[in-house]
């Protein structure tokens, strides 16, 4: 497979995946909206509208707008946005390295979870990294007691690697409400 030359080409190559939503890469001007979306999907009462809430596991800010800006600006990293009616309803952070691509901060607006947008968006993100970076392997970490979330990814072809690591707040301002939280690694070998 020959990777497209530009990010615009790669995003154009995934536009056929859905007519209900569109995709674009984030810019630093999106940072505040992305941080609000991520925090509303994982923390506090607003997150309870969806099934991906971590409100009973962790409290504190999941990510700041400043950290989102850093992720957007770092080399071999991008945040892909999912839009419905021109409004940001999802985001995912994709970080390339020598082994493949790390997928993190995967979010769909809580009130739209369960509508199929997440499945479509995940497929688009996987296609994008294949087209842009010629990636064969994608992996993520999920809190190990989030069995329903792990099952969602397993239904999409992700496998548990057996690797775990203790939960550690990236921002340093998240407080665990549950003892001994761990991240479990999942990976998927993308089809050629």
From TrEMBL:
GO molecular function: acyltransferase activity, transferring groups other than amino-acyl groups
Stored Pfam families: Acetyltransf_1 (PF00583)
Keyword Glycoprotein (UniProt): no
Domain N-acetyltransferase: 21-182
InterPro entries in alphabetical order: Acyl_CoA_acyltransferase (IPR016181), Bact_Acetyltransf (IPR050832), GNAT_dom (IPR000182)
Keywords tagged on the record: Acyltransferase, Transferase
Name of the featured protein: GNAT family N-acetyltransferase
Lineage, highest ranks first: Bacteria, Pseudomonadati, Pseudomonadota, Gammaproteobacteria, Oceanospirillales
């Amino acid at each position: 497979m020959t990777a497209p030359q530009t990010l615009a080409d790669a995003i154009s190559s995934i536009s056929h995946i859905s007519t209900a939503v569109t995709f674009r890469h984030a810019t630093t001007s999106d940072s505040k909206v992305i941080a609000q979306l991520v925090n509303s999907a994982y923390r506090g009462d607003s997150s309870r509208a969806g099934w991906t809430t971590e409100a009973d596991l962790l409290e504190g800010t999941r990510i700041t707008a400043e950290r989102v800006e850093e992720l957007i600006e770092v080399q071999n990293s991008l945040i892909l946005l999912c839009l419905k009616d021109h409004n940001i309803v999802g985001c995912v952070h994709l970080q390339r390295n020598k082994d493949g691509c790390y997928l993190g901060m995967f979010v769909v607006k809580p009130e739209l979870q369960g509508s199929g947008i997440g499945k479509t968006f995940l497929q688009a993100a996987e296609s994008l990294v294949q087209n842009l970076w010629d990636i064969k392997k994608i992996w993520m970490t999920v809190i190990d007691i989030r069995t329903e979330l792990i099952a969602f990814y397993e239904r999409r072809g992700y496998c548990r690697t057996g690797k775990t690591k203790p939960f550690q707040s990236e921002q340093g301002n998240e407080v665990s409400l549950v003892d001994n939280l761990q991240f479990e690694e999942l990976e998927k070998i993308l089809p050629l």
